[in-house]
Amino acid sequence: MEEKTLSTRRIYDGRVIKLDVLDVALPNGQKSMREIVKHPGAVAIVALDDQRNILMVRQWRMAAERAMLEIPAGTLNPGEDPLVCADRELQEETGQRAEKLEPLGAFFVAPGYTTEKIHLFLATGLTESRLPMDEDEFIELEHIPLEEAVRRVTAGEIEDGKTITGVLRAARLYGI
Amino acid sequence: MEEKTLSTRRIYDGRVIKLDVLDVALPNGQKSMREIVKHPGAVAIVALDDQRNILMVRQWRMAAERAMLEIPAGTLNPGEDPLVCADRELQEETGQRAEKLEPLGAFFVAPGYTTEKIHLFLATGLTESRLPMDEDEFIELEHIPLEEAVRRVTAGEIEDGKTITGVLRAARLYGI
Question: Looking at the predicted structure, is the pLDDT value of residue B135 above 80?
């Protein structure tokens, strides 16, 4: 079933992503090509306060051409431990720090064409952070009861993949 | 909160994706850039047989550098109705046709940098299809009990985002 890479051509080397075009050999020996976006990976955090509200951020997403409601997330620095990244991104985007950060699995967002893997965490025991929040991220913070977040997912009102995954994983953990 | 596009440069125009680099004006008037992968969108199908097994496909994913277990999925043709695409892709990848195809929501896989939106469907009432299966997709079909699929998601054994979402949405529908 394995495809073999015959050659790689770097099309673009940018700020967040790179783009490679690969010539590959299929299992039957025929040749094909693959367009692969190289992404450093990311973290996303399901942060629950003591009233079991989920902390969500609303921000402009040019790819969707609108503002979207999502769980806090951020791109990994090269070689960065996802746990360290999750601790930082949560503070920068929400002003809260978590006493407990537990892994909730990791997944490829679109393994057909991008290497991006998101490491998901559950954050609890929130207290005010002493790190300054990012000033140029243009983010609005919302606290949404977990039950209401589940309702919005089921109703199709939440349109971000990692957020749907995070809300549904948390709902199972808390028996909702 | 809105960002305004000042100019767009097309870096790549390929088989499945295009890549644009945008100069944008941030809400505070400062300038920044955005790297945007243009993708036609896709469908993914949670197909359940009469024994409540979920039909899954294993295929090589070069971006992940391994074979992955996923729900059936496929890229939209230009202008194609997602329902029509789901009906076709299910048949091509599994050899089964669904009497019922119901929408289970749609989501952006990574709205920070790709326009790809996946339309998710629940497929039931499966019967053998008369369409020939794709011969050059190198896909292995597996029937996995929905409960077992949920266990694999929770254990972190399923690493594809759309599959995790599909399994968890179906689990809620069937009270698992």
Answer: no
